[in-house]
UniProtKB/TrEMBL annotation:
Species name: Ruminiclostridium herbifermentans
Entries under InterPro entries matching the protein: ACT-like_dom_sf, ACT_Aspartokinase, ACT_dom
One of the record's GO molecular function terms: ATP binding
Domain ACT residues, every copy: 18-98
Top-level division of the source organism's lineage: Bacteria
The protein's name: aspartate kinase
Catalysed reactions listed for this entry: L-aspartate + ATP = 4-phospho-L-aspartate + ADP
Listed SUPFAM superfamilies: ACT-like (SSF55021)
Length: 156
């Protein structure tokens, strides 16, 4: 189907969501945080940064559930430098990724997916995109409903 903007769906189970809040908008600090996580051999996936507000940002990212303890330890090491740093962990998630080369030339695919998720009462916790794929982090309990709805809507 050449007109279908989505040609495949993939899932990743047992995904944790980490949000680091109240970070100074300072690229040196941000790079030090990601370097520390990398030094601990933690492989992170989806990354999203909120726009700066009054010199502060928050960054969210996903990682395998089994790395939660290591990432908390890594992030806590920055609390001395950033006393108001807040770290939130949410471990009951699955990542669903829709892919299609045609997405880069078809407007409204994201809108169609948002509507589909809303109609099916599926909460989205984190989103990352490229020209040809959209990844959503959702509650694990909603994965079957999400996949079924997407397959039906896009005739996969």
């Amino acid at each position: 189907m050449t007109n279908n903007p989505i040609t495949s769906i993939s899932t990743t189970y047992n995904v944790a969501l980490v949000t680091v809040d109240n970070l100074p908008n300072d690229m040196t600090i941000i790079s030090n945080i990601f370097r520390k996580i990398a030094d601990e051999k933690i492989n992170i996936d989806m990354i999203s940064q909120a726009a700066p507000y009054k010199g502060k940002i928050n960054i969210s990212f996903s990682l395998p559930v089994e790395d939660i303890t290591k990432v908390i330890s890594s992030l806590n090491s920055f609390k001395k430098e950033i006393p108001n740093l807040r770290i939130e962990i949410d471990s009951d998630n699955t990542k669903i990724t829709v892919y299609g080369e045609a997405m880069k030339n078809i407007p409204g695919v994201a809108a169609q997916l948002f509507t589909l998720l809303a109609v099916n009462d599926i909460e989205v916790k984190l989103i990352c995109t490229s020209e040809v794929e959209i990844s959503y982090l959702i509650y694990e309990k909603d994965i079957d409903k999400a996949i079924s709805a997407i397959k039906k809507e896009f005739k996969l």
